[in-house]
Structures are given as structure tokens and as C-alpha cells.
């Protein structure tokens, strides 16, 4: 298993979410983040100067099975790219284990829902 942390533009969130769902990534968490980068580029919009280092961003946190790593990364990369400074970063970390609090399952089995066993 791997953990993907991606910092993306807030304006690209819906596109990234849809791309991840299309890549069979069933669940992830996200939060608003702020950060400062070395690369800066000023943009002028309607006479107001904007510093691109202060673009609103989300940080996505995704745990995936090894088999889904590349398609998840490619989905994020393709959907989040604008080609401009400030598009974000993707970080990949090893995830040693996962435990479902409800069922007690461990490992890869916690990362997807087995529809045949779900009861309400």
C-alpha cells in the first residue's frame, strides 16, 4: 500500500475528484492548506496584482493498493495540470498497514468495499 499526498489548486478539485473516481479510487480525504513556495509569478487581473504563491489549495490524502498507484497518480497529474506556476505537487509514501475500525479487517481489504457483504 502507498499513501499519496497531493497539493492541488482549489479550482481543479472537482476535475481531480472525478478523475480519481474514474480511476476506481473509492475514497480520499482532503483539507484546505496554505503554503509558500520559492517560485513566484505575479499576475495582473483587472488592475490588481496577484502573487501565485498564495493560490488557494487543497491537500488530498489517499491510501491506495500498489496496483492502483500509477493510475491514481496519473489521474491527479492530468486533471490538476494547468501548465502554470503553482499547479502543485504529488508525494508518495509507503503505508505499512490499514485497519478497519468497524470490521477489524487489515491491509488491502480495508481500501475497497465488498458490495456483496455490506448490510444496512
Describe the structure.
The protein has a single domain (2-117), classed as Alpha-Beta Plaits, CATH 3.30.70.120. Helix content is 18%, strand content 30%. Helix 1 runs antiparallel to helix 2. By secondary structure, it is of the alpha+beta class. A four-stranded antiparallel beta sheet has the order 2-5-1-6, with helices on one face. Strands 3-4 form a two-stranded antiparallel sheet. The two termini are 28 Å apart. The protein has two helices and six strands.
What is the CATH class name? Alpha Beta
Provide the structure class.
alpha+beta
Low-confidence stretches: none
Average pLDDT score:
87
| Portion in strands | 25-35%
Number of separate domains: 1
Please give the number of β-strands: 6
The termini sit apart by: 28 Å
Shape: elongated
Please bin the fraction of helical residues.
10-25%
Strand order of the largest sheet: 2-5-1-6
Task: State the gist of this model.
The protein has about 120 residues and is an alpha+beta fold. It contains 2 helices and 6 strands.
Which helices and strands appear, and what pairs or packs with what?
Elements: E1 2-9, H1 13-22, E2 29-33, E3 42-45, E4 48-51, E5 57-64, H2 69-80, E6 88-94
